[in-house]
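[NiFe] hydrogenase metallocenter assembly protein HypD: structure tokens wanted.
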Amino acid sequence: MRFVDEFRDAGLGRALAGEILAAVEPGRHY
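Answer:
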């Protein structure tokens, strides 16, 4: 359950969200 552990960590959660946002195409809205 490594994903759950990272999800519970605010710092890692924000870093992961940043990586996801950086991976998506800029200007695309979801």
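The chain has one domain: 1-30. The longest helix spans residues 10-23.

Cheers.
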